[in-house]
Amino acid sequence: MTRSLKSYDAPFASIIVIMSFLPPVSALLSSFARVPRGTAFALPLLVISICSGCISSGGRIEPVDDPPLVSDTAPAPLLHDVPMAVSETKSEGDSEVPVAVAESEQHEAPPKPGDLTELIVTGRTRDLVIRDLVAEGQAQLRDVQLQYVFTGKDGREVLRGRPVAFALWSEAQKNWTIAHLEIPRPPVKWKPGRRELPFTVRTPGIEARHVKGTGAERLMFKFSHDGEELKVYGRKFPVFDNTLIKKKRWREAATTARSIVYLPYTSDTLDPHFTSGGRDFLLATARGAIDELRDASVPSEAFPGELLADVIPAEVIATLAVIEQTDDEDFLEKGTDAFDEVLSQYGLKREEAYRYSVSSAKALGPMQFTDRRGHGTYSFVVRSCRGAQLDPNFERGSTRLQNAMKAAVCLLDIELSQMNSEIRAAYRAKPDVLGIFPVAAYNGGRRNVAKLYRALNRMGVQLAELRRAGKLPPGSAVVCPCVWREDGSLVQAVSIPRYNRENSGYIEKYQSILSLFD
Prior knowledge:
The protein is 32% helix and 18% strand. The protein is globular, with a radius of gyration of 24 Å. The strands form four sheets. Strands 4, 8, 9, 10, 11, 12, 13 and 14 form an eight-stranded antiparallel beta sheet that branches. A three-stranded mixed beta sheet has the order 1-2-3, covered by helices on one side. By secondary structure, it is of the alpha+beta class. The chain is built from 14 helices and 17 strands.
């Protein structure tokens, strides 16, 4: 979600809401048709400030042993004369990916293009062709050297920007082009529909247009050459050591940068097989997390005498993995198609998907946990849910999906334990429908749970009346976000009174996506 820094009061707590490798396919694609596409936590403890918050075959990190460094005393102006697209953009925080996340990647090198055996197979499905192209795009980027440009002299050199390389595929020519760009460093605060992101194209003959993102997870451009739109199947992005950057040790920062080969979402990779595969993958991973909790006999705090594994359904956890990466504006514009885009990322990249998602509040990974030097949500859950045997290392634990899902199960149970007995009883009877309460807490803390409860009371909606979301009939006067109640033989929507736009929107997304995991 688009996250902003917000302050919430709550009893006993200061709460800050922030919210395989397959053969190359150089002669295959022409016959395939394109297929279209914060977390905040409130926990009742003193002195704890809590904030919320690929496999692409190209998701591995490679160290840059000795990057070419180029001095430039007369820096070229960054170009931004091409209008950016707004419809496919997603706002992103400007925080750097922690170096520890980059270093936790597998260090096995992808195959070089010459190591891949040419194989022509007729009738391959589009998703398999895409996987081949992503694998080959990664191989193309493996040995690409990023050029770091320095400005100034006489001991006052500064690293001018961040070099990024893209692997581009021409369907017409059946060949690859590596496009080099330079984007601002540090990242600029960019949002869709506002000022354009400045950048420089450093590869002659290539035209580029920024479409979304600024950081390692979502930065993406569209490219063309001689009027042909080129497809993006890989991107190489350097991650710097912030300690060196803060000390202005520019050359050392460039020399030690870790280069992530990763593919952010692009419509070129959207495919129904990835969407359904992403759904199945998330459910299987959530069930695996719950099975680990069951094997460890971790008790529930919300329901004494019961196992934690029996309290939070896998479907609820799977929805959170999608909601946390679905922007509000995308959802308003595209509806459930916005979920398909996120699911397709999980289907294509699986465990690697959203590892590099970092909000401006430094919420990290697919489930958007924060650490705040040992005093954030993740560290709190590790301490409070010891039986779960969560990885104590924040960067590792929050970016490894199954571990992060286990932490989310623990957190939802802790949040439920702080709710009143009526909510807990209703939740135990219908955990999927009443999941709106722990989900509201996951996003906005206990205060928003109380606000939602009061709003339902003002609407005259009893918790036992709540039902799964349906579809609004044409011409309905009901305006969502809304909840769905049983009224006689009908299930009808009721608008939620305004209490917190972000939180009510979060609940709307939860109800809209839940049926996808049935």
